Amino acid sequence: MTRKKTTKKSVKKAPKKTAKISAKKIIPKAKSDLAKTQKSDYSAKHIQVLEGLEPVRKRPGMYIGSTDVAGLHESLREIIDNAVDEALAGFAKNVWITLNNDNTVTVIDDGRGIPVDIMPQYKKSALEIVMTKLHAGGKFGGSAYKISGGLHGVGASVVNALSEWMRVEVKRNHKAYFQEYSRGVAKTPLKEAKLDSKTDFNSSFSTGTKVTFLPDKQIFSTLIFDFDTVKKAIRERAYLVPKLFFHFKDEREGLKKEVNYYFEGGITSLVEKLNENKGPLHEAIFIQKMEGDVEVEASLQYNNGYVENVQSYVNVINTVNGGTHLTGFRMALTRAINDYGKKIGSFKEEEDSVTGDDTKEGLSAVVFIKMPQDRIQFEGQTKGKLGNAEIQPVVQTIIKEGLSTFFEENPGEARKILEKVYLAAKARLAAKAAKEAILRKGALEGSSLPGKLADCQEKDPSVSELYLVEGDSAAGTAKGGRDRKFQAILPIGGKILNTERARLDKIIEHDELKNVIIALGMGIGETVKFEKLRYHRVIIMTDADVDGEHIETLLLTFFYRHLPQIIQEGYLYIAQPPLYKLNRGKDTRYAYSDEEKEKILLEMKSGNLIINVQRYKGLGEMNKDQLWDTTMNPANRVLKQVTVADVEEADETFTMLMGDEVPPRKHFIQSNAQTATLDI
Questions:
Q1: Domains observed in the chain
Q2: pTM of the model
């Protein structure tokens, strides 16, 4: 989990409570103007035909999602996936990825190498056609690739179109070839190179492909690849394709590092990694079966925790929004558990049956579908959700049969799973009763909002803010200093419940968290309705000391584990109150770090007046005007937006820091003690 700054302090102070929302005024045309427009010439000369890869450069977001840092990494993933496709087809054993010092990236595989023979209808090599034409490749109805993860067969040409420069080198038929391109256009003909030249990119294998490209600064807002983002994508693919060796190097100046991935166990290795330090209840269950041209793989394992972690993939694409394959898996899991429970007499009545939500508690699972590329129907260009309706019954049947067989052959393990989901069902009913009691109580008091909440006047969530403030005293100051039009304040008293170790019923019964849930308005658990969220900026504001950081961590745990969509949508922030107040005569300034304090001291050291430096230990030490000016005024404040760059790493971190297992936490503390900043 990372925090990124979203605003910077203004040098010039803004007057108090001047935050405004402005909109551009649109003046409609006069009727005569509209009539002229409607009668204007519209003929063949207005029709624009985009040749070759022009459509990609014209509308790059349609092909890679965006032109920001996310789109930059998507372009690299497309080239990596072309290499992985060779492994999925059974030909490549290694993939090398290198971030070079000149912002270029190199991807090499030891697969078959892109064909270089001439295509008669085009009178050009197959390599040039693949790299310069949309919808050209071995993934369109042919037998070269049964399954693949590339962008509908257009990934290489799209990346080429969006690259200032690209060089492709191929080894085939005991020969080496290369061709260079600029923004999707071939700059050199296909050339043959001597095997002992620099084109011979690796003498340890006889065939393969090497792609080096420089993203186009005319297209992308940044050309700087993030090592951890690329590492995450590589690690995912290493789990999905067992026995494929990934070699990843960062050769950039000052950033040099290297990681290698190789997993024998495939997705079972991933599930075991997800459950690390979480107290797994049984050995991971692995199910695999081919049905026609669709292969279904699933691995699942329950742990002692209360949080679900399920990932789904189609070929090597991470379907972050699920889809029909995940729906089929969930239906099969619920039915298999209920059928086995009834068979052995654990569930005697219909009301004893568990629901799909009950099977989620403590579940770690991976669902992996392999199918022909030309049959895949993704919902949206970014491939976040699988839409093939026919896949759901296929997955449901295979998973149901596999689980039923496992339960019959492993009754001891099956009972552990039944006990886990049955306890989850009891907790669900308790949570439901607690929520109903909260609603009844709110209705009797005439308002469903908590009494401690100082709400804002604004009803539009997109411009409304909720400050979660540590302590009644600081909250009182914040209430006095806020702009009540759009800023709401809710006090958080003391250390709240550690929700990493709590079921939903206990969370709802906890007063502080109950107030947060009601104030947000979107509910929690299986009844959550994100569209009812009352604030699109939820801001944690705690003291800049150890206790404040502990409360901040507890709140982050709560949001990450139980209301993750608030983080996913970018609505969670952390306020940054100043650490120091520096005063010399009428000159008053604030510093938000030790480095900034030293810089301000140097600037203020002139004349004979002594500079007064005050270290703020808590929010309560500031008056309402100071709190507004430094921490709450949108014109001056610094907010850090909470984002999750690596879900697996964030999950592991929360488990380690907030879970029941002490040894991993002890090891973390001992390893990082030397770098800790202590405010004594």
A1: 55-261 (3.30.565.10), 267-428 (3.30.230.10), 449-578+632-643 (3.40.50.670), 580-631 (no CATH), 648-674 (no CATH)
A2: 0.69
